[in-house]
């Protein structure tokens, strides 16, 4: 524990604002809560500005419920990603405070309002099939206090649809482009806007799309500058990174 915090804690004990036992718990706090099957990083909010996020895929409903209950007790905002509707229903029976968003496949709980960023984030998809990944990015960004503009189904097969929405896209502080198949949309958008572009390849596509590898390689090899690429189907990662960039522009006072 830092010296300044230790002095403050000792003063609270002296003034009977906290008990000796409570003070010892804070001093001995290892920075995580051990549930045996999971170790919740209780210091992540202080270190990074954002609390730990629960990756739901591969975890049982009971495990998700246990982690969520522990985090609610810590009065922390909660996001659980990659949760099927069936698993979400099982979790909600144990933790009814959690809200499920089916398209994004996320469970949410808000204990506190986030700091609101001044700028907005535009999320652009090539097709409707990319929407579940786009919504994961959108909900993530909104949970971190960002205004999100959704521009869906404007892929290169009908490029006039993109041009019709350019004003909205260009007004954003950050642009997230979500595309499968050959993934060309990210390069097109990056060549039309001044904002940083975060590209998300999706596993949408036939045979040689290779479950998103083709789109990933296209985006990594983009000739347009200012494109950063996250992993295949990683809507959460794109939304988180876009939020970090957007908040650099300042927060609403």
TrEMBL record:
GO terms for biological process: 'de novo' IMP biosynthetic process. One of its GO terms (molecular function) is hydrolase activity. Residues 119-251 form the PurE domain. This is 1-(5-phosphoribosyl)-5-amino-4-imidazole-carboxylate carboxylase. The lineage of its organism: Bacteria, Bacillati, Bacillota, Bacilli, Lactobacillales.
């Amino acid at each position: 524990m830092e010296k300044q915090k230790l002095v403050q804690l000792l003063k609270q004990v002296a003034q009977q604002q906290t008990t000796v036992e409570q003070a010892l718990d804070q001093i001995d706090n290892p920075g995580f809560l051990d549930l045996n099957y999971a170790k919740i990083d209780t210091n992540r909010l202080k270190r990074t500005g954002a609390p730990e996020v629960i990756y739901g895929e591969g975890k049982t409903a009971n495990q998700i419920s246990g982690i969520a209950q522990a985090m609610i007790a810590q009065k922390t905002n909660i996001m659980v990603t990659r949760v099927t509707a069936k698993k979400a229903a099982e979790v909600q029976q144990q933790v009814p405070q959690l809200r499920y968003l089916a398209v994004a496949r996320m469970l949410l709980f808000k204990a506190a309002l986030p700091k609101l960023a001044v700028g907005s984030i535009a999320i652009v998809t090539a097709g409707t099939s990319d929407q579940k990944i786009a919504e994961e990015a959108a909900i993530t960004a909104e949970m971190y206090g960002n205004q999100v503009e959704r521009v869906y189904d404007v892929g290169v097969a009908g490029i006039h649809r993109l041009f019709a929405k350019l004003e909205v896209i260009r007004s954003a502080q950050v642009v997230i482009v979500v595309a499968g198949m050959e993934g060309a949309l990210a390069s097109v958008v990056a060549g039309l806007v001044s904002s940083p572009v975060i590209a998300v390849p999706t596993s949408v596509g036939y045979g040689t799309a290779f479950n998103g590898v083709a789109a990933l390689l296209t985006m990594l090899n983009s000739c347009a500058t200012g494109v950063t690429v996250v992993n295949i189907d990683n809507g959460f990662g794109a939304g988180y990174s876009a939020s970090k960039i957007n908040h650099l522009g300042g927060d609403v006072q």
